[in-house]
Every structure is written in structure tokens, then in C-alpha cells.
Task: structure prediction
Amino acid sequence: GSDLNETITVTDNDSIYVIGYLNECELHSGFNIVLDSSQVYTGDQKIFEIIKGSSINLNATGASTYSWSPPESLNDKSIANPAASPTSNTTYYVTGISENGCESTDSVQVIVKNEAFIPSLFTPNNDGNNDRLLVYGINESDVEDFQLIIFDRSGNKVYESNDLGDMIRNGWDGTNYSTALNTGIYYWQVRGKYKNGDPLLLNSEQKGKVFLTR
Result:
């Protein structure tokens, strides 16, 4: 359309572009809409969410040269569509200059979500493979509080750890006071938070279950 405000109904991945004119300068803007669980476009702001450790392609159009900042987490700050891999929430700014010297600026914010997980099965049979239940996908330095408790089917506590670093490196060996526990389903509960205030979740949940088999 040609109105200043347009309503768009999205049913699939799409790219939206707008062209405006200021004196002799032709102004371009655009954004991609990606319907995906790890990349979310929201509202009329340019805000995307990604899982920590993944990346997203930023996009600018209508210029001859580009300059993005901050450059630290970009694969190339001088192209139209650099890949961004931030480890924390970051607002990227781009300046584009057209062939006739017209300059335009824009920005996009990337929200980084922590996605930690714990396996649903482990095999503590001392074969050197998957012998311990570990926590994955967390940087220890990002976490302020941590507690993991594991219960048996009767609700008895069989393991507890308040040391995230130990759960990342050593984990649980499937014993209770050095006694090997039987094959079966056990239930875990995690408590804690990241330094930014977000709750600490495993597999996107505060509770779950794990199958121990020997």
C-alpha cells in the first residue's frame, strides 16, 4: 500500500519493504518475518529472539555501502546481511549510504534467551559412555542461584546439588550415599535464576523426569 500505516497479516515467512522519498534521497527500509520457534518478530519494532548459541541474519537494503555496530558478534560489519551471534541482549545499528551520498540509519534488537537442558536418559553402568547425568547449555558465570533436586517415584530425595559447576562437569552418578539406585524413572526439580533476573529452566521447565538404566 501507500499509506503511512499498514496492517499486515502474516501466514508464512515473508519479507516486507518500504520506500520513501526525502528531497532527492530515496529511503529504503525492510525486515524479514520468520515464523520459527527460535526467531520471533514482534510488533512494529525490529526485535528478534534467539536461543543462546545460535545466530540470526540481520538485513538492510537500499544502500551501496553499509556499516553495522557493534561489530564484535557479527561475521562482517560491512555487508547488507551480516550473521549476528550475540551472547547477550544487543541492539545493532546500521548506517547505509547510497550511490548519490544519501545516508540513512536504522536499528534492530536481538534478545538472547538461555536454553539449558538436561537429558531424559542416562546409563550409569561404568562403560565410560553417558554414565553421569549432566546439565548442558549454561554458562556458569551467567547464573546467580542454582539448586537441583532428584526424587524417586515415592517422593524420596535421592540427590541434591547447589553447585552448578559440578553439575556441568561431573553431574549425578545415579547413586544415593554411594549406593547404586535401581533402574527406573526419577524426577528432578530445578530452582534458581540468571543474573539478569530470568528464572533458570531446564528443557524450558522447572520440573521433569529422567530414566536411569543400567
